[in-house]
């Protein structure tokens, strides 16, 4: 199998399906809380738990998901693992969502189509 064959098997980088999958991943409140915690700085699991109020096992499971999806990266620091956003554009997206909500929060809040 050539490199071109592998590339041909990959999805197009900007399809509606991939965008929808990205937003479904971001649509989970726990994962969004973790990403929000990482906007300003990298953090350990314990720091993420303190920032988000999630339980440690729950935070670890969501971090594994975010790591597998390429939204966060990790590095070892002694016996701790520190997580950070994989791309600064994720922080931009989270900040842009906050700015959008600042002007449209009432409409989003009263929307009955996308309830959890």
TrEMBL record:
Protein keywords: DNA-binding, Transcription, Transcription regulation
Pfam families listed in its UniProt record: HTH_5
Domain of life (superkingdom): Bacteria
Stretches assigned to the HTH arsR-type domain: 11-105
PROSITE patterns: HTH_ARSR_2
SUPFAM superfamilies with a match to the protein in the record: Winged helix' DNA-binding domain
SMART domains to which the protein is assigned, alphabetical: HTH_ARSR
Molecular function in Gene Ontology: DNA binding; DNA-binding transcription factor activity
Record InterPro entries: ArsR-like_HTH (IPR011991), HTH_ArsR_DNA-bd_dom (IPR001845), Metal_resp_trans_reg (IPR051011), WH-like_DNA-bd_sf (IPR036388), WH_DNA-bd_sf (IPR036390)
Protein name: HTH-type transcriptional regulator CmtR
Organism of derivation: Thalassovita mediterranea
Encoding gene, per UniProt annotation: cmtR
């Amino acid at each position: 199998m050539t490199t071109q064959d592998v590339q041909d098997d990959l999805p197009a980088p900007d399809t509606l399906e991939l965008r929808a999958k990205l937003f479904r991943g971001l649509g989970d409140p726990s994962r969004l809380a973790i990403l929000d915690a990482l906007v300003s700085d990298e953090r350990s699991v314990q720091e993420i738990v303190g920032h988000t109020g999630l339980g440690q096992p729950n935070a670890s499971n969501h971090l594994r998901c975010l790591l597998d999806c390429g939204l966060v990266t990790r590095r070892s620091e002694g016996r701790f693992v520190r997580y950070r956003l994989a791309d600064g554009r994720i922080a931009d997206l989270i900040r842009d969502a906050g700015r959008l909500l600042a002007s449209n929060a009432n409409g989003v809040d009263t929307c009955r189509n996308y309830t959890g």
